[in-house]
Amino acid sequence: MNDPQRVNIGKQHPAAYKALIALSSQVEEAAAAAGLDPLLVELLKIRVSQINGCAFCLRMHARDALKKGENPDRIAVLPGWEETGYFSETDRAALRLTEAVTRVSDGHVSDEDYNAAAAVLTADQVSAVSWLATLMNAFNRVAITSRYPVEN
Question: Rounded to whole angstroms, how far apart are CA atoms 65 and 61?
Answer without folding.
Answer: 6
